[in-house]
Amino acid sequence: MLMRFVLQFVLPVALLCAGADAQAQQYRWVDDQGRPQYSDTPPAKAKAVKKTEVKAPSQPEAPAVPYEVQRALKDFPVTLYTAPSCNEPCEMARAALNKRGIPFKEIPVVTVETLAEVKALAGAEAVPVLVVGRSVLNAYEPSRYDSLLDSAGYPKEGAVPARSQRAAEVPPGAAPPVAEPLQAEAPAKAGPYDTSGLPANRREGPGPYDTSGLPANRSDKPGPYVPPGTAK
Fold this sequence. Notes:
Blueprint: H1 2-24, E1 27-30, E2 36-39, E3 47-51, H2 67-75, E4 78-82, H3 88-99, E5 105-108, H4 112-122, E6 126-127, E7 129-132, E8 135-138, H5 142-151, E9 180-181, H6 200-203, H7 216-219
Parallel strand pairs: 4-5, 6-9
Antiparallel strand pairs: 1-2, 1-3, 4-7, 7-8
């Protein structure tokens, strides 16, 4: 899958470069009838040959970042650590930033160096990890994301145009994913003396030496080992 993606990405770039070179090598010349002509290579008998410069079409400019977002970015830049194996959690984290119109730097964790970086930041080898300024959040939780971004001064969702920043590309030849999505903590297992599985009438019942089931004429009768001085 990765190989096919890389080829699809490189091929259009190569074609664009070739087109730009061809446009840059155009010539203007005059034929035998005195008419101006244009071509990549003028004929040997062409007259008044002149090289022309043709500018390649300019790329569309990225949408301007609102002033409120620029001001927050200056002191609280946003970085999101993800991994190719992190599907829904990382997609939700990325979508949350895009909905609030926040530009961010995404770092895919696919090398030993980036894995060590995540562990140093979050204390665990898990993604997604959000860094806002010097604050770090591991795992994705909408309320925690909103609270942190609000405290950094970023506009709330809907206050500025949303963005459509896509997932970061994994460098060709990178190692297989080494970070796994952070799972919710499993409930604590019951200990060896847990009574949750016992019937309700036994959970807080008397101990093994209970005498409540003895006949009435035996419940208060002292045993053979009564304390000294106690009348039998």
